[in-house]
Amino acid sequence: MSPLLANPYTLALGGAASTFLIVLSTIPTPSSMANRLNKLEKVKEKDLFQRNMIIQQIVTKERQTQTKQRLVEAGWYNLSPTQMTIRGMGALGLGTVVGIALWLLAGNSVLGIMLGLFTALVAWRLPSFLLSRAIKKRKEEISRELPDFLDLLSTTVEAGLALNAALIQATEAAQGSLKAELQSTLSEIKLGRSRADALTAMADRVNEQSVTTMVTAVVQAEKLGSNLTVVLQELAKDTRDRRWMLAEETAAKLPIKMIIPMALFMIPSLYLMIFGPVIAQTVTNWGK
After folding, report:
1. Which compartments does it reside in (predicted)?
2. Is residue 17 part of a domain?
3. Which of 35-39, 119-123, 183-187, 232-236 has the highest mean pLDDT?
4. Contact (Cβ atoms closer than 8 angstroms) between residue 97 and residue 32
5. I need a surface site. Which of 15, 132, 236, 273 has the fewest CB within 10 A?
6. CA nearest 187: which of 26, 31, 28?
């Protein structure tokens, strides 16, 4: 065992450094609107990223783009790809320190090494796991709220309101993440962006099949002059049918997922209840 690893001051220093990285990642960065204003003020792009040069050298631009898209899908608009990378590094460092401590407590055994490596790996993947979970939860929430929104939108359009006015009315009645995205879309329209471009940008941000289908259908209906009320009603029906099919598919997978818990917990308990008294009686008789 290396004396450096066994030194408690080394572990404390590593833990402090990891904690510092995690805290550093929570410092807010300028929003997308602030970045646009900076561009309008002709601030050079390289000057905007000088403070993050080390992280950018570690992480490729393609990776940063992917992380940025995932952050947008999760609704974490106040978190930049650089901050997400710093969180991952901090979590990895903290997990490594905890892993080394567990290794030392286990007496340098093989089990201690495996436990330490497992702890470091889990800590490294934890930020990405939480991000993926937030993305999935947000998409499910939007998919659940979309049919009611489409019903209300079709009703207001059928009542004679223009599409923009109908969007405003339906957005006020919406809830959760879908309402936040629709409000952002309406704000872009008020600032002069075309409705088709604003809706397409919303579909790109959310990256959910039902929303993409809705935006594509609405844009095409406007271009072709189709009956928008009928299109919206069909979209609401299709969205509900798709959610119902997903629910049936999930229910069909439950018996398969229950096999392992039953094999690990229920079946051994059942065997113990059946054969336990017999074994106890046999042991008692054998002792006599």
Report:
1. Cell membrane
2. yes
3. 183-187
4. no
5. 273
6. 31
Is residue 86 within 8 Å of residue 25, measured between CB atoms? yes
Q: Could you tell me which residue, 273 or 15, shows the higher pLDDT?
A: 273
User: Do 20 and 38 sit in the same domain of this protein?
Assistant: yes
User: b or e along 155-188 (b: 16 or more beta carbons within 10 Å of the residue's beta carbon)?
Assistant: bbbeeebebeebbbbbbeebeebbbbbbeebbeb
Q: Mean pLDDT over residues 153-175, rounded? A: 90
Cα 248 from Cα 269, distance rounded (Å) = 31
Among 83, 90, 68, CA closest to 28: 83
Total count of residues recorded for the chain:
288
End-to-end CA distance of the chain: 54
Q: What is the DSSP string of 188-201?
A: HHHTT--HHHHHHH
**Cα(17)–Cα(135) distance, rounded to whole angstroms?**
29
Q: How far is Cα 202 from Cα 184, in angstroms, rounded to an integer?
A: 8
Q: Which two tokens stand for residue 287?
A: 């002792």
> What pLDDT is attached to residue 232?
87
pLDDT(288) > 90 = no
Q: Write the CA distances from 216 to 69, 106, 194, integer angstroms.
A: 20, 58, 15
Q: How far apart are CA 76 and CA 68, in angstroms?
A: 9
Q: Is residue 187 part of a domain?
A: yes
Q: Which two tokens stand for residue 259?
A: 């096999």
Given this model, what pLDDT does residue 88 score?
Answer: 83
Report pLDDT digits (tens) over 58-117.
677 888 889 899 999 999 888 888 888 888 888 888 888 888 887 778 776 777 788 878
Helices (H) and strands (E) in the chain, counts: 15, 0
> What number of other Cβ atoms are within 10 A of residue 34's Cβ?
10
Contact 135, 114 (CB under 8 A): no
Domain that holds residue 202: 139-252
- Write the CATH number for 219: 1.20.81.30
User: In degrees, to the nearest 5, what angle opens at C-alpha 161 toward C-alphas 155 and 163?
Assistant: 90
